[in-house]
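User: Thanks for the earlier help. One more: Transcriptional regulator. Can you show the sequence and predicted structure together?

Assistant: Of course, both are below.
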Amino acid sequence: MSTSIDLDEIIKALAHPVRRKMLADLKEPTTHFPTQEHALELGVCAGQFVRCGLSQSTISAHLAVLQRAKLVTCKKLGQWSFFKRNEEVIAEFLQHIAKDL
């Protein structure tokens, strides 16, 4: 595959249950974020994660870790940041793990 992944960053990102939940919820945004006002094609607005009971700063920190590991991408529009899963990186990581284990 063409993407270069950082296994250590990905494993570190996936080590926290909140980040795994965020990534899982992003897989089916229409199910988990039905009240978002903006089109989900843009991604999920960071503010939508407040429903999990965490502060905005904690949510931002978790999303930054996922972004640093390239598991999510971020698109900024005005004051909003929209996040989507990076399926190419996720697939490459899963393929690498399956091959090496």
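User: Great, one quick takeaway?

Assistant: The chain has five helices and three strands.
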